[in-house]
Amino acid sequence: MFVFFALFGLLFIVIGIVGLLFKVIVKKPKRKFGILALVGVAMFIVAAVIVPDDIEPEVEKDELVKQTPIDEPSETLKEAPEKESVEGIEKPEEESSKETEEKPVPVVVPPKNDSSNVTPEKLKDSTETSGTTARIPVELVKVIDGDTIKIVYNGKEQNVRYLLIDTPETNHPRLGKQPFGDEAKAKNKELIENGTLEIEFDVGERFDKYDRLLAYVYVDGKSIQKILLSEGLARVAYVYPPNTRYVDPYEKAQAIAKEEKLGIWSVEDYATDAGFNAQVVKEKPVEPASEKPAPAPTKQPVAPAPAAKPTPPVQKTEWFQNCTELRKTYPNGVPSSHPAYQPKMDRDKDGFACER
């Protein structure tokens, strides 16, 4: 293209000059020659000035492309940030990982079943022994009945209600004395007063609504609850999660006593899920266990020695089949002093039946 413009531009210039000379010599104006001369000059200028500027940079670029690969600059640009990130970020992570490796990892040792580590200061926190089987040595004050004792705990006297069991009453304000209540109390007293006394808490509530401690009781490492159940002097009751740590072994001990018809299980339907039915014992007398032959039969029912004659239930002047019928007359339920009160309707044993 450069040669084309240069040659034709030069040709038009020559023709233009010749035309101008002819004009001067002949003195006849010929516009065509002047136009040709101007066109030739323009083409020469294009060939000499404009065209080389447009062509030469492209050639130089083509040569640069051939000499220098295109991918190299891009790779260099991409690698630079990665190096900076490695120098700026990865090194601190390596240093922190080294520090982590150098620091010793603390070893967590599970709590041992050792009551010697339990101090009075720790006992001030009601959750100090939660979730453990730590046993706390305590001092006995007195035995109240088969499933309740009084101890010195945390510097003051405190009643303890045995967890997960229930024994017949010995001096209840409403139920009076129930069959096998004295036997359960006597056995409890015999065990408690002859060894080192300890209590163990479960993971749930520490106190009931009567402000009694709820605990498992041990003497010389033996479970008092389990012994009373295995001899038929208690039943598994008041199972309120999460205080259920030993419910399975307790139920196994109860099943054996029930199968052998020991104590409270010797009278059918006496021990029930709702409590103890003294009326059944009155109708079906229970003979005390003895190796000697029983004396001549008597018409009077014989209660197990040394239990006294069971107190007959309080006479009712009003009777309802269930709580639904009772609430039709007494919408808010009735207290234990009310003539319509029945123990079977008092599920939580709080002295108030069919409350809402």
Question: Keywords, please?
Answer:
356 residues; alpha+beta; OB fold (Dihydrolipoamide Acetyltransferase, E2P); 13 strands; 13% strand
Summarize the structure.
The chain has helices at residues 2-26, 31-67, 71-102, 120-123, 181-192, 224-230, 247-259, 278-283, 323-329, and strands spanning 135-137, 139-145, 148-153, 156-162, 165-166, 197-200, 213-219, 222-223, 235-236, 271-272, 275-276, 334-335, 352-353. It has 356 residues and is an alpha+beta fold. A hairpin with a 2-residue loop joins β7 (213-219) and β8 (222-223).
Helix content: 40-55%
The end-to-end span amounts to: 110 Å
* CATH top-level class of the largest domain: Mainly Beta
CATH topology of the largest domain: OB fold (Dihydrolipoamide Acetyltransferase, E2P)
Which outline best applies?
Answer: rod-shaped
Report the structural category.
alpha+beta
What order do the SSEs take from the amino end to the carboxyl end, as H and E? HHHHEEEEEHEEEHEHEEHHEE
Q: How many extended strands?
A: 13
Mean pLDDT: 73
> What does the oligomeric state look like here?
single chain
- Count of domains: 3
What is the CATH architecture term of the largest domain? Beta Barrel
Instruction: Summarize the biggest pleated sheet.
Output: 7 strands, mixed
Integer-rounded radius of gyration = 54 Å
Share of residues in strands:
5-15%
Unreliable spans are 51-100, 105-116, 122-127, 288-292, 312-316
Structure description:
With 356 residues, the protein is of the alpha+beta class. It folds into 3 domains: 2-67; 115-305, OB fold (Dihydrolipoamide Acetyltransferase, E2P); 314-356, no CATH class. The protein has 9 helices and 13 strands. The strands form 4 sheets. Strands 1, 2, 3, 4, 6, 7 and 8 form a 7-stranded mixed β-sheet that branches. Helix 6 (224-230) runs parallel beside helix 7. It is rod-shaped. Residues 51-100, 105-116, 122-127, 288-292 and 312-316 have low confidence and may be disordered.
